[in-house]
Structure formats: C-alpha cells, structure tokens
Amino acid sequence: LLSHFSSIGFWGLVNNAGISTFGETGWLPMETYEKFADVNLLGSIRTTLAFLPLLRKYKGRIVFMSSIIAYFTLGNGIYSMTKAAIEKFCDALRLEMKKFGVQVCIIQPGNYAPSTKIQPPVSAEQIWSELSEEEKAVYNKEYVEERANFFNSILSEGSTNGYEVVDAMVDALTSPAPKARYMVAKLKEKALVFVCALFPTVVMDSVLSYALSK
C-alpha cells in the first residue's frame, strides 16, 4: 500500500487499537472504565486529530475498528460502551470530512476472538477475588462462574478467519467508492443487530435475557 500511494502523500489512517474485558457494571472499578475510554475511544480520537491536516490535504481515508457489540452487549458492556461512542464520533467526522474529500469508514466485526486474541478466556476465580465486598454481598460465586462460562463459550464460537476483517480494511482504504460501514459478521450476529436496530428495545432485551438465561 505504501508504494501504491506514495505519489499522493499521506493517504490512509487505520484506528485499530482496542482492549476488551468482561464483567458486569459494578464489578469493574472506575479506573478500568477510564482506561478503556482512554485506549478504545480517546486513543483513536488523538490519532485522528494528529493526522487530520495531512488527511485533508491529500483527500485520504480514515478507517475505524468498531464492532457489532456497539449495538448490544452480553457481559462486556464496558467494551460495548466504547465502540458505541466511537461510532458516533465517526458519524460526525464522516459528515464533516465530505467537504474535504476525506472518506471515513467503520469496520464492524462480529466475534473474531480466536483470531485476534483481544479477549482471552476469563477466569471466574480471578473475577471473584477482585470483587469488592459490596459486590460479593450481592452476587454469589456460582453466579460469577455461570456468567464466566457463558462468556467463554461465546468466545470459543468466534471465527478464526481474521483475513475477512483485513479484507474489509483494505477495501475501505483502496476502493474508489468505499462503504461507510463494513459489517463483517455471521448471519446470526447480523440478525441480532437487525433486531436491535429496528425492533423496540423491549424485544432486544427479551432476546438477550433469554440468551443469558441459557
């Protein structure tokens, strides 16, 4: 790509940095929320602002790594929160950059945990040991184990075809007419997004509650 675009200056920026973790809202300390916002959201914004003058000058591309988890969450609300925020940042940026000829694209992968290793299997023992006394008084160890096992089963079902996401990134950078959003996910995952986007919230809540109960 560098040799291909070297004649037209700084062409593309891909914001791919991201971290993930598991835990219900009260299980995680404020420091964890701050760390995730700093890496997943503010990290991408800092990089974008730093390169924006060059991208405007050369009418380049900006690609952000989001996730279908921006639409719903199953135990990793902190990650979902940052992805939903980056989606809104991109929506504003995409409209603002049109007048400069800069195109903004969002990649929305489904579950590619085995490919990226972004989220290793979680340990119920570790989660329980790190809970505050207040949270331990509300939840029991068996509940934590159930949630951890559920989350680990989801991780294990992820795709190993990481090249599919890379292909979407390359298309976003090189296509004459890139998409605003590239959803790279299984049909089941796309169906969840469809339900979340078009049905009343109570319907999606029912679907996710049923999944969690299983």
TrEMBL record:
Record-annotated membrane-spanning stretches: 62-79, 191-212
Keyword Transmembrane tagged: yes
Any one Pfam family match given in the protein's UniProt record, by short name: adh_short
Membrane found in the keyword field: yes
Domain of life: Eukaryota
UniProt keyword list: Membrane, Transmembrane, Transmembrane helix
PANTHER family per UniProt: D-BETA-HYDROXYBUTYRATE DEHYDROGENASE, MITOCHONDRIAL, SHORT-CHAIN DEHYDROGENASE/REDUCTASE FAMILY 9C
Family: Belongs to the short-chain dehydrogenases/reductases (SDR) family.
Protein name: BDH protein
Record gene name: Bdh1_2
